[in-house]
Amino acid sequence: FTILMQIHTFLFNPFQENTYIVHDGVSCVIIDPGCFEKREQDELFSFIENNSLKPVALLLTHAHVDHVLGCASVLSKFDVDFYIHENDLETLKAVPNYAHAYGFKGYLPPKEPNKILRGGEQLSFGDIKFDVKFTPGHCVGHVVYYNQENNFVINGDVLFAGSFGRVDLPGGSMNVLKESIFNVMFNLPDETLVYCGHGAETTIAEEKRSNYILQF
């Protein structure tokens, strides 16, 4: 018996970042809230309210500015646990130092995450279950959230449709990213639906066949 997860995607901020709500009709988790403008925050909160969902966790795949802009607003509105990989705590702390350079004046840093991931955890929120897999390379503390029952992975900026996360930011490494893609992502079942931090979703099979990473 498979619990049907629903995944709702929001497109936020000038980086066109995908923010995800995963829910089972009752509880929901918010992943990588990139909502900066008030209207973006309102869009996220209205969806939760209109569907009578109860937020139970805020999860980060990683802590680059475009994925964390809405963390403070989410955490001030909802009393939820805040998950991040231990290696990305410093990435999160660095955001206030450069957010203004990308046009995000008035960025508010969130309170400290209270749930520290190391990779390998199994998270359970009501009927929502994730295997946490450590996938550095785009940044030092990147993780993906894999749901085996429903064949999907929320993969942040590791894989994109036909492409992959940039490695020219602090903590990025092409060699490390390749290891994460070939040894972790490409070991997921071929039919796994991959939800990306930017752009359209794809599948593991499609990326194993045609991704640009294969040329490196």
Short description:
Helix content is 24%, strand content 28%. By secondary structure, it is an alpha/beta fold.
Instruction: Bin the helical content.
Output: 10-25%
Could you state the order of secondary-structure elements as H and E?
Answer: EEEHEHHEHEEEEEEEHEEH
What integer value in Å does the Rg equal? 16 Å
Regions with pLDDT < 50 over 5+ consecutive residues?
A: none
User: Strand tally, please?
Assistant: 14
Mean pLDDT: 97
Strand order across the biggest sheet?
1-2-3-4-5-6
* Sheet with the most strands, sense and barrel status: 6 strands, mixed
Q: Which class of secondary structure composition applies to the elements? A: alpha/beta
Beta-strand portion reads 25-35%
Q: Provide a count of the helices.
A: 6
What features would you describe in this structure?
The protein is of the alpha/beta class. It is 24% helix and 28% strand. The chain has 6 helices and 14 strands. A 6-stranded mixed sheet has the order 1-2-3-4-5-6, covered by helices on one side. A 6-stranded mixed sheet has the order 7-8-9-10-13-14. Strand 5 (81-85), helix 4 and strand 6 (115-117) form a beta-alpha-beta unit. The radius of gyration is 16 Å and the shape is globular. The mean pLDDT is 97.
Which helices and strands appear, and what pairs or packs with what?
Elements lengths: L5 E7 L4 E7 L3 E5 L6 H13 L3 E6 L5 H4 L2 H7 L3 E5 L3 H10 L16 E3 L4 E4 L2 E7 L8 E5 L4 E3 L4 E2 L2 E2 L9 H10 L9 E3 L6 E2 H7 L6
Parallel strand pairs: 3-4, 4-5, 5-6, 10-13
Antiparallel strand pairs: 1-2, 2-3, 7-8, 8-9, 9-10, 11-12, 13-14
